[in-house]
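Usage

Read records sequentially. Each one opens with the input sequence:
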Amino acid sequence: MRTSRRTDAGGRWIVTDSFLSDEAREAADPFLGDGTLWRQRFGAHEVRIAPRDRQGFTLDFEIRPV
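and closes with the structure output:
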């Protein structure tokens, strides 16, 4: 399994042939939330998507500054 890291002005990059590796999971863990929330950052704003119902058929979207 190969994994490499690179940091530049645009952020931190992790290139791996297995997203299930411990190193990939450790790097992504702070951004994963509690398993029910998906967060995506766009510049100075963050989009949060969470299930509104138990089955996840209806979603809540929130856009907020970070």
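Summary fields computed downstream for this record:
- The chain has a mean pLDDT of 84.
- The longest helix spans residues 22-28.
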